Amino acid sequence: MNVHDSSPRVRGYSRRDFLRWSVLAVGGVSVAACAVPQTPAAPASSGAESAQPAEASGSVGVWYFPFGAGVEDVYKNFADQFQSEYSQIKMELELLPWADRYPTMLTAIAAGEGPDVMFMTTDALIRFAGANAIVPLDDLVSAETREGYDPAILDQVSFEGSLWYLPMDREVPVWLYNSDLLEQIEWDPAQPPASWDDMRQVCERAQALGNNIYGWGYNAASSTLNDTFYPFLYQAGGRPISADGSESTLNSEAGIEALSFIVELYEKGWSPVEYLSPIGSPEENPFWQGRQVVSTATKQGGVTTARNLFPDLPVGLTPVLQHHEQWGFGALRSWAISSNSENQEAAATWINYLVRPENMLTHCETFGMIPVRQQAADEAFTDDEVLASLLNHVPYTFDEQKHKYGRDLMPLVVPEIQAAVTMQKTPEQALNDAVTKVNELFARG
């Protein structure tokens, strides 16, 4: 079955669905950020974009999240600078944890409460838009602001012909290697492994070393598919959902090839068995213990962990890994305005201010994220060669699944993958069973 990257269209939601989802929605995955030296919020330039009239007024409540070290100071500086420019708008910032953020938002909005502005990822877009939990931004984002984005970025945050989010930053995929271990297996660190075939060789050579050294690994205990199964699936040429959004395509030929490789990692003893159970801290991770040649998939947070917690571990970056295709996961992260907001113009003024190139640059350089406006990206990480190199990963980054059930399908699929990894089912049987469950979910409409 042919699958494509085009975003599915899903019909709207009832008020009953909205209230039910506020209880049942699956919580989000934590997003790590790099501990790059903090920079102060940039003052508004005299030629800065004017998204909304200066007379916009009222209070604007903002829910933001732990983007990285110093986040409260950075956003206080943003708010202070903003209020000096828009004195009739009062900012009220509230820092929330990443865990369960979407159920928390839906519950608050369903109760007629919650913030004016929220930080969100693409997988929640259709659910929130269809439930009228957020408002379209077509009349709230200036033409000048839109011109700063690649049209493909704005397409990712659009649905049913409207723009729903204003993108702020993005993650990119990262795999790290231990250069000492690469040298021990007689692999030139200047040409790090880049493909499945390379990884098989790395695993075989690492196994030959003995001493509890492993080549790679698969985090089978993870509750998300984004950093675990999906990169293998995309690299094999598959996609999890059909182009029209009507059915799961996990059991495609590519899906079976991807899961078969994951099973091979365990069957041949190439993956540490620690990944079969939740790993509570970096210190428990075989890669950070110096026992694994190439890390499991991570994002910019892997660079932070190396710099801050394991400065003596000699690490480098592989290219984005590939098989038939070259892909890795990274979320596009954006601002949205709640349908409960009584001051939508003031809220829009705030988010238009945040995405000015100078402010986006401050945010991204402070927290190690990739700017999504070209002017900011062109100026990013001039003093950090490693993070600057990650800009090259953007073309090979797939986003969250933009589908009504993009998050809800994961708890149905993860146990089936675990059954294959533990040899209770064949890869084909596990994925067929997963597809049956996911398609039953999709059939709810």
Beta strands, count: 12
Q: Specify Rg, calculated over alpha carbons.
A: 22 Å
The run of helices and strands is: HEHEHEHHHEEEEHHHHHEEEHHEHHEHH
Estimate the global geometry from the Cα principal axes.
Answer: globular
Number of domains: 2
Amount of beta strand? 5-15%
Mean pLDDT figure? 89
| Poorly predicted spans | 1-48
Largest sheet: 6 strands, mixed
CATH class wording of the largest domain: Alpha Beta
Task: Describe, in plain words, how this protein is organized in 3D.
By secondary structure, this protein is an alpha/beta fold. It has two domains: 15-172 and 330-398, 3-Layer(aba) Sandwich (D-Maltodextrin-Binding Protein, domain 2); 176-327 and 409-442, Periplasmic binding protein-like II (D-Maltodextrin-Binding Protein, domain 2, 3-Layer(aba) Sandwich), CATH 3.40.190.10. 37% of the residues lie in helices and 10% in strands. The chain is built from 17 helices and twelve strands. Strands 2-1-3-10-6-11 form a six-stranded mixed β-sheet. A hairpin with a 2-residue loop joins strand 4 and strand 5 (162-163). Helix 1 packs antiparallel against helix 3 (101-110) and helix 16 (410-421) packs antiparallel against helix 17. The longest helix is centred in the last third of the chain and has 16 residues, at 427-442. The two termini are 22 Å apart. Residues 1-48 have low confidence and may be disordered.
